[in-house]
Each structure stands twice: as structure tokens, then as C-alpha cells.
Amino acid sequence: MQGHQQAPAEGPGTRPAEALKRGSGSQLRGLLVFLGASALVAALGSLVTLNNVNGWYASADKAPWTPPNWVFGPVWTALYLAMAVAAWLVWRREAARSRQALTAYWAQLGLNLLWTPVFFGLYPVMGATALWLAFGIIVALAVAVAVTVLLFGPISRAAGLLMLPYLSWVVFASSLNLWAALNN
Fold first, then answer.
1. CA angle (109, 114, 116) in 5-degree steps
2. DSSP string spanning the chain?
3. What is the pTM of this model?
4. Which CATH code of 2.60.120.10, 1.20.1260.100, 3.30.200.20, 1.10.10.10 fits the domain covering 24-183?
């Protein structure tokens, strides 16, 4: 009769049995997939933004706490990089719970992609209705990011922490979106 071996509990100095099973080539490809997905979302969003930031948005009534336009590019670049690394850290664990966490990640990334064309692209066509629709999307995005943080944290503390600036920025952006919806 064979004895059953138990995987060591996760903690300082231990590596769970299901963690880090992927080879270095696979690790690099995985990181590149997450970085590529973030870059794609950023690029698609910037296409819509660039066409409208100097259009209707330039003369829109914005919240008094709105940063200058030049701040958004560097902030989003850093956030997309942190998000990709966080997702990669969770993916490389190969834990059963990683699947649920990554599903939440992809859902929030989809909402992120959806928000920009609704807010910037639909305003010229729909007016304030587009801004209210965008506000609903960004609130859903904030909830999805919060869920992602909560699911990432137990799998990889670093991943959960890497997502916190993004959550903070989305909440901040929600306040900007709400002001725009109320005042335009």
C-alpha cells in the first residue's frame, strides 16, 4: 500500500506542487501573450481617443481634478504593464483557482476595451447618453477589477498588489466620467 504525499502548504520558502510547472520558454511566451493583449487593448483604445481628445473632449466640461491630457498616456502604459505582469504571475501558478482568476482578468480587460469607444467615440453621435452608458461600463469595470484583485491575491500576493494601482485609477476615472455625464 502506497502512502499519499501531500503538497507542502504555500508560505514563505515553499512552492506549491501546482505552482511554476511551466518551462522557461513557455514562461516567456505566456508573458508575451499577456503583454500583447494589454498592448492591443491600449492601441485600440488610443485610436478612438486620439480621434476625439482634440475634438469634442477638448471643449467638454471636465471635472476640476482632471489631470492634463499628457498624464493619461504614461499612467495607462504603466498600468497595462502591471496588469500584464500580474496576470502572468497568476497564469504561471497553474493552480485550479488560476482559471477563475484569469477569467475575471479577461472580463475586466474586455470592459476596459469597451469603455473607450463608448465614452470617446459615441459622444458625437449619442451625446450625454453615451457618457452615461460609459459610466455604467466603468462602474462594472471597477467591480470586475476589484474581483480580479481579490482572486489574484491568494494565488500571488504580488499579482494582487500589482492590480491595486489599476483599481485606484479606474475608480478615479469613474469620477471623471460621472462629472462628464452630469455636465455635458
1. 105
2. -PPPPPPPPSSTT---TTTT-S-HHHHHHHHHHHHHHHHHHHHHHHHHHHHHTTTGGGGS---TTPPPHHHHHHHHHHHHHHHHHHHHHHHTT--HHHHHHHHHHHHHHHHHHHHHIIIIISHHHHTHHHHHHHHHHHHHHHHHHHHHHHHHHHH-HHHHHHHHHHHHHHHHHHHHHHHHHHH-
3. 0.82
4. 1.20.1260.100
- The predicted-structure confidence for 19-45, as pLDDT tens digits, reads as follows 455 566 787 888 888 888 999 888 888
CB contact set of 171 (below 8 Å; sequence gap of 6+): 142
Please classify residue 58 by burial: count the beta carbons closer than 10 Å to its beta carbon, then call 0-12 exposed, 13-18 middle and 19+ buried.
exposed
